[in-house]
Amino acid sequence: MLNESELTNPSLLSNEIKEDSLLKKVWLEFYKNRIAFIALIVLGIVVLSCLLAPLIAPFGPLDGEITDRLLPLGSTGHILGTDEQGRDMLTRVLYGGRLSLYAGFLPVVISIVIGGALGVIAGYFGRILNTIIMRTLDIFYSFPAILLAIGISAALGQGINNIVISISIIFIPPVARVAESAVKGVREEEFIEAAKSSGAQSISIIRYHVIKNIFAKVFVYGTTQISISLVLASGLSFLGLGVSPPTPEWGIMLNNLKGQIFINPLVTIIPGLFIFITALTINLVADGLRDALEINS
Amino acid sequence: MLKFLTHRVLLMIPTLIGVSIIVFLMLQIVPGDPVDSIVPVDASKEVRAQITEQLGLNHPLYIQYVDWLMRSLHGDFGQSIVRQLSVNALLFPALLNTLILALGAGIFAFVISLVIGVYSAYKPKSWLASIGNLIGLTGISIPNFWAALILIGIFSVLFGWLPPIGMKSSVNGGSFADVFYHIIMPAVAAGMTTLGVMTRMVRSAVFDLLHQDFVQTLQAKGLKPFRILLHVLKNATPNLLTVAGLQLGYLIGGSVLVETVFAWPGIGQLIYQSVSQRDYPIIQAGVLIVSVIFILLNLIVDLLHSIIDPRVRGS
Amino acid sequence: MNTILEVKGVSKSFPVKGSFGKSKGAVSAVSDVSFSLKERGTLGIVGESGCGKSTLARLLLRLIEPDEGEVLYRDQDILTLKGRKLNQIKRKIQMVFQNPYSSINPKMTIENNVAFSLWTNGVSKKEARKKANDYLEAVGLPRSYAHRYPQSLSGGQRQRVAIARALVLEPEIIIADEAVSALDKSIQGQVLNLFQDLKKDFNLSLLFISHDLNVVEYMSDEVMVMYLGKVVEKGSAQHIYSNARHPYTKALLNSEPSMKVGVSNLDKHQLIKGELPSPLNPPSGCRFRTRCPHATAQCGNAQLPTIEVNTGHHVACHLWDMGTGSLSQNKQSDVLPI
């Protein structure tokens, strides 16, 4: 049987060449996309410096002399100037990023886990379970996201974790929708029927066949949500629903500084600049990732 | 058409009920007794009991809900806790101001995104297409409250051209020109996200359509590029309309931050102030009203969609 | 030869819902189908697309639950089984699906695709992979393919993987549902021969479903012809192909283009008129009567007889009824008794 035409095709018989894993192929494609790659490096630097803030920040986040207030950019010892209390802006921005990034990333992770699970259950088992889950989640589409987040945050009370909860809640329905429609597509595939006829349990089919095939879609969707989550979280914090001063966080820092726009506009906009750069690079990375995955599927 | 309409309206009812339940329950999860936020700290037990009785808080939850729903359906949203005014007297003027701002932001975003989006789909290698790319990415990445601060920094602080806050001048304000003068920066800031989303959306929708078979047929027939573009736009209209409608909804509910920065007397700012003052009747009514507008807007978009594209009615 | 699988009066219809969940009626996909498969035999099932062949296959595997009927595997009705007992018998009947691009999980290696059937039934992963490799070799795939992903395989190679996956559970019956239809002609032959070889090597009984008359003739000992969910004719392959009795079978055989150079048989015979009727509320009585050149008033009667016109050769048609069953014995094959 081995002397058949399709098996003697030399390109198919080059067995020695180990096939690249999908992950490696996606990475190679991503690497070729210069803009996305540079964005990833910038994002990496921002995230790392924030995480390492206690090691690399020149001052303590709460240290400041009121006499040094609102020093301009490039002042000696304060490269990004100082805020309205005379605290070093670079230090505050690095420390502040830790909470902002936390509130940007965590809701996406939570909503992927919970929304993904709901979507898989609704999509795989269908029928009445689908109707109950999806119609309930549909209700959340009738609220403008920010307003709902403000409402939930307001009800839960001030706190960065309450911001995380409220953003997670508004992100769960769309993630569930993406997962559900992806599962519905996969469920019709013949390999699911083959698995069923081999006597496999639903749990096993979901684990090995369903989740593996919808993960990329849900993951790519999740990456596009990170920047939205970051901007939303800092917005809620800007409204005073997150941490209380003097704890640094990009949103609340921007709010505290906004009154100084007439005195020192350049220093005032710095925390927002970091939110913007982080969100922008995340979007560029997400776009690059989506393109790389599309080419490889 | 009538069948489609009734079908859609009937489908709206469970959604509206669900929304009202969520809005009602949202404030039930508030820690602590709501009476605390009304009565003075040193109030006597009798006073507390009287207030509890007055607000119906001694009844079971579902009765409170039905009671609240019935009153809301009659347009009675109660009294503001903090300000000695009815919720309606505060809410509806603010809602009007928000609609004005949302409309301004929508016009700004839709016009620019349509021009740039279509052009960059048509000539993807042009410099305008690169700018379109940049606008799309910036729009979806920029926090609008930060954009608002930058606009103030440039046009109010640096050049002194535009007023940094408010909706009208304190002296002789309120004319169309005056409001227009005040609305420019808030509208641009609020429309930023919509501009980004719509530019990307228009570009990819038109780009996809330009590469379909029917366009090649039209080219083969020798149609002028402009006429072909008209065909493409006609095909893109239903989807663009849907997205535009949704975005208008987001603008109505999502301008809280911009309204706060510019002190625009809209519903967002009112809700935000009520959040910090724990004025729950206003929050409840505000979120409910905005959501109902949002749902109605979706309905209108669906109806327009079905008029333009009759295939929708079948499904 | 013993009968390994006997199907008695199996039916399935799907309700069709209109707006607001109102029922619009039911699509009768499979109606009162009976047949038996002999041990180590091959039964071919032919019919146009939409005739219920694939639904029938899924009913036998209980991927879809039948409305009524019995499916006896070695005299045991598998429709009444549950749990472990069902799973044990399920493994004895395995299917090779139509579309090799949809029937293999693209996110698993070839090896894991095959091994999954085993480890999901409690075999250790190491053991399962070892066995999977043995079967991949048996279907003619080089060992080095085991760690590849399906995207680098051709359609024919994928179908081999699908066959290995069915075999790894050591079944006694293989249902091949249009298993070569998606393949190039040149590859079809290889896969068909593979089926023949494996059937011998592993003592398999084969249920071979296809719309392609040539393929079914090549593979089958016995043939069953279906039209709109019903069996119209069944018998030995020899009888059916040389002496078809049902007007539909005849028309079907006539519509197959000749493979001989320069010979066209298409215009010489009557082709089937019209379109396949909607399976939603199909014609009463004989479902073929709306397109049958010989239809009479009695064809609409609810009671449609099944007549044995030859040993083991059954036809569901009034033409062979009328108490003149013996007439058929001496009839010329292409002349109908009217």
Automatic annotation (TrEMBL), chain A:
Q: Which organism is it from?
A: Pullulanibacillus pueri
Q: Entry's Gene3D superfamilies?
A: MetI-like
Which parts form a coiled-coil structure per UniProt? Answer: none
Transmembrane stretches, start-end? 35-57, 99-125, 137-156, 162-179, 218-241, 261-286
Protein localization: Cell membrane
Question: Where mainly located?
Answer: membrane
Which CDD domains would you find in this protein's record?
A: TM_PBP2 (cd06261)
**One Pfam family from the record:** OppC_N
Tell me what this protein is called.
ABC transporter permease
PROSITE patterns of this UniProt entry? ABC_TM1
- State the InterPro entries in the record: BP-dependent_transpt_permease, MetI-like, MetI-like_sf, OppC_N
GO process annotations (BP) = transmembrane transport
**Record membrane topology:** Multi-pass membrane protein
Keyword vocabulary terms for this entry: Cell membrane, Membrane, Transmembrane, Transmembrane helix, Transport
ABC transmembrane type-1 domain location is 97-286
- Per the record, GO CC terms? plasma membrane
Assigned protein family: Belongs to the binding-protein-dependent transport system permease family.
TrEMBL record, chain B:
Q: What Pfam families does the entry give?
A: BPD_transp_1, BPD_transp_1_N
* Alphabetized InterPro entries for the sequence: BPD_transp_1_N, MetI-like, MetI-like_sf
Q: Which UniProt keywords apply?
A: Cell membrane, Membrane, Transmembrane, Transmembrane helix, Transport
| GO molecular function, a single term | dipeptide transmembrane transporter activity
Entry GO CC: plasma membrane
Task: Report the membrane topology from the UniProt record.
Answer: Multi-pass membrane protein
Q: Which family does it belong to?
A: Belongs to the binding-protein-dependent transport system permease family.
Q: What is this protein called?
A: ABC transporter permease
Q: Which residues form the ABC transmembrane type-1 domain?
A: 95-301
Q: Which Gene3D superfamilies match?
A: MetI-like
Cellular localization per UniProt? Cell membrane
Which residue spans traverse the membrane? 9-30, 99-122, 134-159, 179-198, 240-262, 282-304
Q: Which organism was this protein described from?
A: Pullulanibacillus pueri
Q: By its UniProt entry, which PANTHER family does this protein fall under? A: DIPEPTIDE TRANSPORT SYSTEM PERMEASE PROTEIN DPPB-RELATED
> Is Ligase one of the keywords?
no
Automatic annotation (TrEMBL), chain C:
Name the Gene Ontology molecular function terms of this record: ATP binding; ATP hydrolysis activity
- Residue ranges annotated as transmembrane are none
Keywords, A to Z, come to: ATP-binding, Nucleotide-binding, Transport
**Lineage: superkingdom:** Bacteria
Q: Which CDD domains match?
A: ABC_NikE_OppD_transporters
The record ties this protein, via SUPFAM superfamilies, to:
P-loop containing nucleoside triphosphate hydrolases
- Positions of the ABC transporter domain: 5-253
GO terms in the biological process aspect are: peptide transport; transmembrane transport
Report the sequence similarity comment from the record: Belongs to the ABC transporter superfamily.
What NCBIfam families is this protein classified in?
oligo_HPY
Name recorded for this polypeptide: Oligopeptide transport ATP-binding protein AppF
Q: Which organism is it from?
A: Pullulanibacillus pueri
